[in-house]
Amino acid sequence: MVPTPYYLLLAAVLFAIGAGGVMLRRNTLVILMCVELMMNAVNLTFVAFSHELNDMTGQVFVFMIMTVAAVEAAIGLAILVELYRLTRSVNIDEFNSLKG
Amino acid sequence: MEIYLFFLFGGIAVVGALAMVFNKNAVHSALFLLLTLVMIAGLYVLLNAQFIAVAQIMVYAGAIVVLILFVVMLLGAELGESIPRWLTLRNSVMVLLALVFLTVSGTAVYDWLYSTQPITGTVTDEVIARQGSVQLVGESLFTQFLLPFELASILLLVGIIGVVVLGGWRLVQHRQRGE
User: Fold this and answer.
1) How far apart are CA B120 and CA B53, in angstroms?
2) Counting CB atoms within 10 angstroms of each CB, which of B100, B139, B143, B158 has the fewest?
3) Is residue A22 part of a domain?
4) Contacts of A14 (CB under 8 A, 6+ apart)
């Protein structure tokens, strides 16, 4: 039996790595991957609490988050392909045409 | 036994996440992300959520990582960073911010550890062992959470339409102009 705070701390570490990656990396594809990692950390927290509190609601929430993650990946990658057609680059510093 | 498996899965997950962030090649990053996601699926099994573990592998490993890999290879975007300069002042501030995130979440965990809330749920490990994780998740998904379930299907539909419009609209216009 693993204590629940271990899972929560592991999820916090994974979330911090993801957040740091979003801010460190310039490659937009890697930034999208880091966002997925952050969502997974949140999912792990949900399932850990679901196990601790003996309640299924957390697992249903994880299902919803997975749906949102799939849609987000599809739309984000489609936008990225369009941006690549326009700028011939995936570096996020190149995407500054809304800067004014 | 269980705690050793936790440290094995968790350790590989953290190492994979770090390797994902600090790898210059985006294809390698995607493969390390896959490793981390599979390890998290193992943690779900340890948490007695077998259905979520299988869904994790199907949705993330089977769909999202494959999609990301396709786009990376299609765009030839393996090396998006021109010249990585890791140890600048700006990057140090970013790492500091990530650590602040970690500290805040850690404090929340610490507070939770010493709170004494009564546990009122009824789905204990014995109930899961008797009925199965799939049946229990399905039951609450189709009774208590029916409206969010339907809303999720609408969200997926909107996503499909959005991707088709974003990806195929220019092609349709081009074809019409060509005729």
Assistant:
1) 25
2) B143
3) yes
4) A37, A38, A40, A41, A44, B13, B14, B17, B36, B40
| From A34, A36, A78, residue closest to B64, measured CB to CB | A36
Q: Which residue of B has its CA nearest to A88?
A: B75
- Residue in A20, A48, A57 closest to B47 by CB: A48
Residue A91, strand partner residues: A27
Task: Classify domain B1-82 at the CATH topology level.
Answer: Four Helix Bundle (Hemerythrin (Met), subunit A) (1.20.120)
Reading chain B (179 residues) residue by residue, the pLDDT tens digits are: 889 999 999 999 999 999 998 888 889 999 999 999 999 999 999 998 899 999 999 998 888 999 999 998 888 766 656 445 666 777 778 777 877 877 787 777 777 766 766 676 777 777 777 777 888 888 888 998 999 999 999 999 999 999 988 877 777 777 777 65
ipTM: 0.92
How many structural domains is chain A composed of?
Answer: 1
d(CA B59, CA A68) in angstroms, rounded, equals: 11
Site of tokens 């701390």: A9
